[in-house]
Amino acid sequence: MPRIVDVARRAGVSTATVSRALNGKPVRPELLAAVTAAAAELGYTPDRTARSLRRRSSDVVALVLPDVENPFFTAVARGVEDVAQAHGVSVVLCNTDDDAAKEARYLAVAQDENMAGVVIAAASGRPALAPLLARDRAVVAVDRAVADDVDLVTFDNVALGRAATQGLLARGFRRIACVTGPAATSTAVERAQGWRDALADAGLPAPDGLLVRSDFRVAGAHDAAVALLDREPRPDAVVATNNLGGVGVLRALAERGVPVAASARAAGEVSAGAAEGAGSGDVAGCGVAIVGDLPFATSSTDGVLLVPLDPRDLGAAAARMLMERIRGLDVPARRVVQRVAAPA
For the chain, how many helices (H) and strands (E)? Predict the structure, then answer.
């Protein structure tokens, strides 16, 4: 018996598009024609029982996050819960550890338990959403984009990477490196692109050797920063594209005895002082810009340039979009981009 995924494959569209087309929801004419033709060729008939699942679903939603220990995602969760509770909906928190297999198991549970919807910060750009979408479940992606045709609320990540880099340029730094996350994560790719764009705008190179990817966690970013500090010539500043990455960078600098410099001039003064035997270290200081707020346990941010984020508001926006979908909003997939604040 043909399935909705077979129709989607034959038509060259997503399962969500097939669902909308066969349920009379608005899609582009050419996509409707492709879906209708594929369904006819395969002899596919929509499951009318599945179409009513949303109305019979429980008042529970799943929140699927990659790292609940990261204060960024803790704040996202708080924003989601605030809105869900106001709508009489309970939230089940699922931590994936950025593991696609673990994520797929949680999504299967959301389907099996007939949850009303899912908010997901995906482990990769292609999470296993097809079964949920085939049953007309409400799904909203938060922070990280996915390939599926679903609602998304995110930051302007290119602008964030650009703002962090421009802040360092304004402080006089020129050889600026970037520590970012995995290539499979949209936020990591987009913020690194912002770094490249800012350097290009300033007429400066962005060599591949100054871009290091880690796992968006403290240990990975620490190792990435150590590798950068061993480069010759060493970068005079580093952009960390997330909060825990910033902690890792700061730890690496502290271990190497490299002070954080608030400006290129200050970095030079540290180096000159050390050469005269009057400084506290034996190397020049290093500028640091971090996208996101540092965890409260971080001891000092002196000299660090921070590009602030509001993850709680991000989570609340995602939850509001999900509640609208659960209550029957029938419009094409939406993309909401949160504003970027000025560096501090």
Answer: 14, 11
pTM for the full predicted model: 0.81
- Measured from the Cβ of residue 259, the count of other Cβ atoms closer than 10 Å reads 20
| Blockwise average pLDDT, block size 10, the chain, 344 residues | 85 85 79 87 69 60 96 96 95 96 96 94 94 92 95 97 97 97 94 98 94 93 95 94 95 94 81 46 81 73 91 97 92 91 79
Residues 245 and 70: their CA atoms lie apart, in Å, by 11
Is 334:140 a contact under the CB 8 Å cutoff?
no
The DSSP output letter for 234 is P
Q: State the Cα–Cα distance between residues 274 and 107, nearest whole angstrom.
A: 56
The stretches of the chain forming alpha helices (DSSP H) are 4-11, 15-22, 29-42, 48-51, 53-56, 71-86, 100-112, 130-134, 157-170, 186-201, 218-229, 243-255, 264-275, 311-326
Residue partners of 313: CB distance under 8 A and separation at least 6: 79, 338
Question: What are the CA-CA distances from residue 221 to residues 36, 42, 154, 227 (Å)?
Answer: 49, 49, 23, 10
Amino acid at 208: D
Q: Which residues contact 32 (CB under 8 A, 6 or more apart)?
A: 21
Q: How many CB atoms lie within 10 A of CB 1?
A: 7
Quote helix, strand, coil % in the chain, to nearest 5: 45, 15, 40
- Return the sign of the alpha-carbon dihedral for residues 84, 185, 227, 285: negative
| N-to-C CA span, the chain | 58
- With beta carbons less than 8 A apart as the criterion, state whether 214 and 221 touch: yes
Q: H-helix or E-strand containing 61?
A: strand 60-65
Distances, alpha carbon 289 to alpha carbons 304, 305, 306, 322, in Å: 6, 5, 6, 33
Joined together, the tokens standing for residue 219 give 């240990």
- Under the phi-then-psi rule, with left for phi > 0, alpha for psi from -120 to 50, and beta for the rest, what region is 168? alpha
Describe the crossing of helices 71-86 and 243-255 by its angle, rounded to 10 degrees: 160
